[in-house]
User: Fold this.
Amino acid sequence: MADRVMPLPIGRPERKVYPPAVDAPRDIARPLTFIERVTNNTMARRLFILVVLISAWEAYSSFLANPLLFPRFSDTALAFWDAVAHGVLLERTFTSLQVLLVGYAIGLALAALFTTIAVSTRIGTDLLSTLTAMFNPLPAIALLPLALLWFGLGAKSLIFVIIHSVLWAVALNTHSGFTSVSPTLRMAGQTCGLRGLKYVMLLLIPAAFPSILTGLKIGWAFAWRTLIAAELVFGASSRTGGLGWFIFENRNQLETASVFAGLFTVILIGLTVESVIFRSIENATIKRWGMQN
Amino acid sequence: MSTRKTAGESGAGGVAPLLAVDDLTLQYKTAEHLVTATWRVGFEVYQGDRFVLLGPSGCGKSSILKSIAGFLPPVGGSIKLAGVPIERPGPDRMMVFQEFDQLLPWRTVLGNVLFPLLVNRRMDRKQALDHARALLAQVNLDRFENVYPHMLSGGMKQRVAIARALAMEPAVLLMDEPFAALDALTRRKMQEELVALWEEVRFTVIFVTHSIEEALLVGSRILVLTPHPGQVKAEINADHLSFKDVGSPAFETLNRDVHGLLFADKVEAEALATGGRHG
Assistant:
């Protein structure tokens, strides 16, 4: 093929289009139709899936007709409403969130401490890497028996396992965020006169914010799952149990609809934090800054 | 053309140099090697100079600039700014980098220009705002002050970086191939704008480039460096050339001369290699 080169056509006229073509489409942008907009909306599509799932649930449980094993969606919704309005669900949820926030806060403070040590000295970096390598794969809930032995039945043990589940995820992500700040940005900050604590606060932390936020999200998810799991194991000791205890209690009383209502609450809170709180932080920061697409 | 000078015996009619680089030797470590970037480089920069460090990659021109900025301490020799040795990075030597990520992505265009002013408490907020806005107007970005850097084109980002650097009114502005990542059309426009800005403000700038043409257009004085390690090959005046001279005989002659200076070195190096003298 290579030896047969096609000759270029001879005598092609040059051209200049002036003025530009008059019959070019006038409205370059056209508003989308209603149907197009609805099907483009993620919320609308997901809502549709939810409606389908709920209908399937309702239909199957009506067919099964065994509320002890698989209550109907309407019963679950009713049980949920009942537990919220007249029961202990809110109180239980509040207890869980309280413990969670305390653990989360202590976990973050420790993560900040570890990261500071890790960025300031090389041995500190090694310390953090070794500790995270050891503890990150260890599910926090596996430490619960030990925690019970050390701190007894109660909030202290819960907080201990929550700290463990938050600390390593946050410290690891923050540290890797710091180390991956571009050399150019570091140098730009330093020529602007940043040094010491100012350099960390005004340059490193915002520059590493995408990673830090990822760490916070992972830490939150770990902590929430760990807490519910731990509460399932115990929670009766103190006067006020948490959400996990609510689920456990209702299972013992064979109030299956209430068990479902408890699970629903766990999902609801998880979703709210992950896709409302963290999402809005994301939109207001790293999305707005173009640091994440 | 003398190849080496020492600070003090300058030929600028008794005016003291603003920046004196004397016998500068720079080394840096890679994972496996200790690289000598420059070897006994000396030059002087005067107030109002558009001083260009020109050379092929590997001549240590960026290392020299980093050392002036305070990021790379000299192994031998000295760098003195107004007689004072340079110790650490600081806002009296603001730097504009080649990479677009030198801007703080979490701050708007205005926020970026304000940043060094506020960090260094150079002036109160009101004054700083006025000052930053005036500079943005000078680089034709006043309409974009509330935009975040990721929404700007490459050329606009570089203009923000230049405005941010000039806002601090640095003793010397350091520019490390600031237009190298731009497309050819934008690059030429930026070069013209930089010189026009200089006509207006008369700052002192040290400009690193590997483009001879850019050196001739932007620079008033050009230091030609040879690679491995970087050494001074020549120092040339280019103040008489402007953008309308592109393509003129004078411009092309100087262009060819500088090209010859850089290229001759390669021939010499090849001659050395084929001559069996390994060093």
